[in-house]
Amino acid sequence: MSRARDVAYDCVMAVSTEGAYANLLLPSLLEKAGLEGRDAGFTTELAYGALRMRGLYDAIIGKASGRDPRDLDPEVRVALWLGTHQAIAMRVPAHAAVNETVDQVRRERGAGAAKFANAIMRRVTERDAEGWLAAVAAGDSRAAVATRHSHPEWVVRELEEALAADGHGGEVTALLESDNSPARVTLVARPGLIDREELIQQAGGEAGEYSPYAVVLPGGRPGDLEAVADATAAVQDEGSQVVAAALAYAQPVEPGERWLDLCSGPGGKAALLGALAADGAATLDAVELHPHRADLVRRSTRAVPEGVVTVHTGDGTTWGEDEAYDRIVLDAPCSGLGALRRRPESRWRRQPEDLPELVDLQKALLANAERLLAPGGLLAYITCSPVLAETREIVAGTTLRQLDARDAVAAVTGTVPRMWGEGPHVQLWTHVHGTDAMFLALLEKPLS
Asked: CA-to-CA distance for 72 and 198, rounded, in angstroms?
């Protein structure tokens, strides 16, 4: 397992010191190292677990060393995260966790640092997980809850407020626990391009619970599937599928309708909407600010019938002609606090001071979407965040009329509207629905 540990170390170092993204970097590192099966699974759990739980592990390392972990050399701190995760979360024997960590530090920082790491890891292995939680995160204060579940305290506060506003007060522990559980791999069978049953047979998965296009995989490498390679299917969270499809299900599609995806990169929602547009004889314009992400949208939508989807590179806050579109999806850039289980490093990268800038951008995008929407047209405002400042408070500032999104979501999922909260918006929750915590508001421009 030494090579597996080395790959995990390289991944966590790159993420924590160079701004890399684990979900993008780790697959290439695994392939380069030739790791598959059990070794690849060990590496993934080790890297993701260390990144996800680093807040708790910093508290443990600080208690064991009597030093602020932020003052340690990055190489030592990362190695100690990995060692601590092995010792208290992966059932790795204590001697192996200690020895591998010390060897890693010796290679990176020399004998003196290795001696320090040896002392710290020996203290770490003196207690089990419960013992350490009692030592560094006792009680029910927000700070203790944040440490215990390894989330920044400000994130816990925002989630508590969002849960309470949505009728889920007192459920923050369940939500934080779900953030720390790896997400299942879910595919979308793009309608008209591949039948879901055919994708189930090809992938060896099972039908999703909510989306009529979702296939949940037991494991494996989805990129190896033929349907994913030819873009008739793709990896896409079930909640993302539901909120995107709701725009098409909200009312019957008339032939010739013009649709717009105003922030379309990397293209998952654009491809699903493009497939639905093709089925209804509509067309879709997909706008993306960054050229390299616009290329991703083109790649994602390449299986949609020719002439249905047109990809544009442009600024979503200013792009487009007045009242040109019958339906618009605005999947706004946001804090991403609804997808923390997928992006283990994101909870540590975001800061509370990021929110005002994001909110200003969301308002500007929504204002332009309102300008582009034709009278009688529908707009789906979507975020992968439950934070009130990015969701309800944004929608409250528009002049558009808010419809009951529960009806559209019920139509997509084959359920009843009351299942989706009090309305008029729909807020999905990871601990309730097993999806990313997606927010959906459906807005309509009056005819006059």
From this structure: 53
Amino acid at 80: L
Q: Report yes or no: 183 and 210 within 8 Å, Cβ to Cβ.
A: no
- Here the tokens at position 14 are 């790159």
Rg (CA), the chain: 23
Would you name the residues annotated as active-site residues? 384
Strand-pairing partners, residue 330, are 381
Q: In terms of DSSP bridges, do strands 426-427 and 401-403 run parallel, antiparallel, or are they unpaired?
A: unpaired
Which of 297, 304, 252, 313 shows the shortest CA–CA distance to 283? 304
Averaged over 25-40, what is the pLDDT?
Answer: 93
Q: Whole-angstrom Cα distance, residue 409 to residue 401? A: 18
Q: Decide: 121 and 87 in contact? Cβ < 8 Å.
A: yes
Q: Residue 372's CB: how many other CB atoms inside 10 A?
A: 25
Across 76-80, average pLDDT: 98
Task: Tell me the per-residue pLDDT of 126-185, one tens digit each, with 9 for 90 and over.
Answer: 999 999 999 999 999 999 999 999 999 999 999 999 999 999 999 999 999 999 998 999
Q: Checking DSSP bridges between strand 401-403 and strand 373-383, what pairing results, if any?
A: unpaired
User: Would you list the domain boundaries of the chain?
Assistant: 2-134, 183-235, 237-444
- Tell me, yes or no, if the two domains 2-134 and 237-444 fold the same way: no
Torsion angles phi and psi, residue 334, rounded to 5? -150, -175
Determine how many CB atoms are found less than 10 A away from the CB of residue 67: 13
Joined together, the tokens standing for residue 320 give 């487009």
Helix extents (H) in 34-128: 37-52, 54-65, 74-89, 94-109, 111-124
What is the distance between the alpha carbons of residues 47 and 6, in angstroms, rounded to a whole number?
Answer: 10
Model pLDDT, residue 1:
57
CATH of 237-444, one of 3.40.50.12160, 3.30.420.10, 3.40.50.150, 3.30.70.580: 3.40.50.150
Q: Does 1.20.210.10 match the CATH number of domain 2-134?
A: no
Angle subtended at Cα 436 by Cα 430 and Cα 437, rounded to the nearest 5 degrees: 70
Report CA-CA distances (Å) from 365 to 369, 381, 397, 429.
6, 10, 12, 25
What would the mean pLDDT of 59-70 be, rounded to a whole number? Answer: 97
What is the pLDDT at residue 448? Answer: 72
Report the greatest alpha carbon distance in the chain. Answer: 76
